Amino acid sequence: MRFGHFDDDRREYVIDRPDTPLPWINYLGTDSYFGIVSNTGGGYSFYRDAKLRRLTRYRYNNAPRDLGGRYVYLRDDSDGRYWSPSWQPTRTELDSYEARHGLSYTQISSTYRGIHAETLYYVPLGETLEVWRVRVTNRRHNRAELSLFSSVEFCLWDAQDDTTNFQRNFSTGQVEVVDGVIYHKTEYRERRDHFAYFACSEPLAGFDTDRDAFLGPYRGWETPIAVERGRASDSIANGWAPHGSHHVKISLAAGETKEIVFLLGYWENPRDAKFDPPGSQTVNKRLVRPVIERWLDGDTVERGFEALRDHWTKLLDTVTVRTPDADTDRMVNIWNAYQCMVTFNMSRSASGYESGIGRGMGFRDSNQDLLGFVHMIPERAKERILDIAATQLDTGGAYHQYQPLTKRGNNDIGGGFNDDPLWLVLGVAAYLKETGDKAILDEAVPFDNKPGSEVSLYEHLRRSVSYTLDRLGPHGLPLIGRADWNDCLNLNCFSEEPGESFQTTGNREGGVAESVFIAGLFVLAAKELAEIAAGCGFADEAESYRQNAEKMTGTIAEHGWDGAWFRRAYDYFGTVIGSSENAEGQIFIEPQGMCVLAGVGLGDGTAARALDSVAERLATPHGIVLQQPAYSSYHVELGEISTYPPGYKENAGIFCHTNPWIMIAEAMRGNGDAAYDYYRRINPSAREDISEVHRCEPYVYAQMIAGKDAPTHGEAKNSWLTGTAAWNFAAISQWILGLRADFDGLRIDPVIPGDWDGFTATRRFRGATYEIEVRQPNGPGRADHLVVDGTRVEGTLVPLAPAGATVRVEVTLTPS
Length: 816
Fold this sequence. Notes:
Blueprint: E1 4-7, E2 12-15, E3 25-28, E4 33-38, E5 45-47, E6 54-56, E7 71-76, E8 82-83, E9 96-102, E10 105-112, E11 115-122, E12 129-138, E13 144-157, H1 159-162, H2 166-169, E14 175-178, E15 181-184, E16 194-200, E17 206-210, H3 211-215, H4 225-229, E18 242-252, E19 257-268, H5 281-295, H6 298-316, E20 319-322, H7 326-346, E21 361-362, H8 363-373, H9 378-390, E22 401-402, H10 420-435, E23 444-445, E24 455-456, H11 457-469, E25 493-494, E26 503-504, E27 514-515, H12 516-535, H13 539-560, E28 569-570, E29 576-577, E30 587-588, H14 589-597, H15 606-617, E31 619-620, E32 623-624, E33 627-628, E34 654-655, H16 659-668, H17 672-682, H18 691-694, E35 702-705, E36 716-719, H19 724-736, E37 739-742, E38 745-748, E39 758-765, E40 768-775, E41 785-788, E42 791-794, E43 797-799, E44 806-812
Parallel strand pairs: 40-44
Antiparallel strand pairs: 1-2, 2-9, 3-4, 4-5, 6-13, 7-8, 7-13, 9-10, 10-11, 11-12, 12-19, 13-18, 14-15, 15-16, 16-19, 17-18, 20-39, 21-22, 23-24, 25-26, 27-28, 28-29, 30-33, 31-32, 34-35, 35-36, 37-38, 38-43, 39-40, 41-42, 41-44
Helix pairs in contact: 7-8, 7-19, 8-9, 8-10, 8-19, 9-10, 10-11, 10-12, 11-12, 12-13, 12-14, 14-15, 14-16, 16-17, 16-19, 17-19
C-alpha cells in the first residue's frame, strides 16, 4: 500500500494523503539554522544545537504523535468555518491534499470549500531564518472573505529546561511586538545576546503572543479561540507561554491569488553590540530589520528558493548513475545522498525519534557519517574532522558525544566506548582519499579542547591506534570497555556472590571483556593508517602498523573464529559470546561484516564461510538480523541488549546500519548477486509498496526494521538519523558500482548483479569529471583493466587527471 509516489524529475516525494502510518518528515536548512517539518506541518526549529538553541516547542510521545509545528489556519469569515491547510492540527476532511518533500524544503497544499492554499517552507542559504510562503487562491465563483492565522509556540531556548523547570519558566516568558514583528526575547539564566522573531509581509488585523490567549482555556491546537471567533486579542505574554500568531484579513475575487510571507528567524547580535532589547533602535532597526524586510519580499523568496534548488543540483552532480534499476538510481542520485547530508548535519540529535536533548554529535557516528558526505562538501568535512578530533582525550580515548554549539565533550554520556577512537582514522582516511589534502594531518588540534594541548592531527591518529594496543585483554583481543559499536552489549559485569545483582565496571579499570568486532575494526584502521603513514614518508611507522594489523589478524584466527563464523566477544568472566557454545546469541552480524571489511579471512576461505553463515542464519526478506537466536529473557551479565523483546533493536532486530557491511563483504569476495540482493532488501524505495508494513518514510533509510522474532516483522523505526545512510551509500556507490576514491586516483571496480548488462556514471573527483561506462556482456564478471580516454590501463585505478579535465572511462567486466 502506498501513501504517495516519487517525482524523480522534481526530486520530491509526493504524499497524497495526510494520514501516513507515522509522521513522514523532512529537514529544513543546510548549515546552521535547521528545522524538522512533517507532512502535516508538524516539527520545530533550532539554531545549530537542538538542545541549547531551540526556537519552537514540540511535544514528543504525545497523542496525536505529531504535535506542535508551523501551523496556518484559514477561516471563512462569511460563516466562521475554519481549517488547517496542512490537515493538522484541525484534521478537517480536506477536498484535496498534497505534501511535497524536496531537498531541504517542503510544500504542503490543499483545497477546502473552493479555497486552495499552498505553503512552502524552506531556509535560505546562508541565513538564520525560515520562510513560509503561503499562497491562497479563491477557486469559487464569488468573492471570498477570509482570515489567515499563523502559529508558532516559542521554546525557552534550552529544550531540556523548557520541558522540566516549570516553576521558573512560567515566570520568564518575554515578548515584544514592534512594527508588526513579534520578538521572543526570553532570557535563559543570564542575559543573552540572541532572540527569535516572527514576521509577516502583510498589514496585521491583530496578533497574539500569549498561548493561553490564542488557544483559550481548556482548548488545544485544533480549536484555538482566536481562530474560532475570527479575531486576535493583541495579547502580550508576561511570564507563562510565549507564542507567535499573526492575523491577516484576505479578500479574494473569484480566481484571485494572494501571497503572504512569514519569517521565523534567529538573531545573534555581534560581539560588540550592546545588549539592548530586540525592539530598540540600536539592535533591531539597524541590524535585524533590513534582513526581515529583504526576506519578506516575494521576489527575494523566489530567488532564494531557486538558489537552494541550484545548490542541491550542484551537490548531487558529484555522483550520478544510471543503472537498470529505478530504485537504485533515485537513492544514489537523490535520496540517499540527501540523507547523508542530513545525518552529517544532525548526527543522531534531532528527528522524530531523537528529541534533540539527550544526544549531541557522536564521535563514532559523525566519523561514519563522513563516509557518505565527504565527496559533496569536502571543506565542511574537514571542519568536522577537526571538531571531532579536538574532543579526543590525550589517552587516545574519546567522549562518546559532544554538543555542537559548544564543541565540548558531553560528560553526561562520557566515554569508554572503546571502538570510538578508531573511527577517527577511517574518517580522516576517507577525507584524504577524496581530496588528497595531506596538509590536514599537520593541523594543530587540542585534546579535550584544552588550550596548550595542541598536537598534529596525525598524532591524534597515532593515539587512536595506540589506545587499542594499550588495552588488550586476556586473549590478546581489544578490551570492549563500556561497549563497542553495539552500545547495548555491556559485558564488563561482576558479582561478589552467585545470584547477587551484577554491577557494570563500565569504562573503569579492571574490565576485561574483549571484542572481536573491535579487533576487526583495528585491523582495518591500522591498514588505513599504514597507507597514510607511508604517504607521509614514515616508512618504518607504516610497517609497524601493518605488522600490528597482521598480528591482530592472527589473534582473530586463534580466538575469534568459531568454526563457521567469527565470534562476537568475551564477557567479564571470559565466557565466549557469539559462539555455537551459546544457547542464544550464537552468531552476530557485526564481526562477520567488519572482519571481512578488514580483509580477515579473504585468503583462506573463512570469510566466505562466515558470509555463508550470515545467509543461512541471519538473512530475512526484510534484511539481515543482528544476531540469532534472539535472547528470550534478560541476561544481566550481557547488559542492555537482552532488555529488548526478541526481534527489536539490538536483540535480533534488523539493525540496518550493519547490513551494508555484509553487502561490502560480499562485493569484496566478488558475489555481486548477494551484495545487491541484500541492498534491495532494505532499500526504502524498493519497500514503498509495503508502506503499511514498513510504516516509516519510503524515501530514507531507517535505523532498524523489526526482525523475524518480532510480531511486527518488517516494521521500521528510527528513520533518518542513522549510520545506515552513509554505509549504504558507500556499499552501493563504492563497492557494488565500484566507484571509489583512493589515495592515488579513482578506483573503478564494479561487482554488479549477473543479470545487469552494465551501467553508466559520472563522478567529479579532485576537480576533474569522469564519465564512466561499464559493460557486462557475458554474465557476472570483474574488471582487470580500464580504457581511459582510449588507452588501456591495467588494473582498476584511474590515474589522477588535471582539474577541469573530462575523462572518459570504459570498463568491461569479464567472467573470471
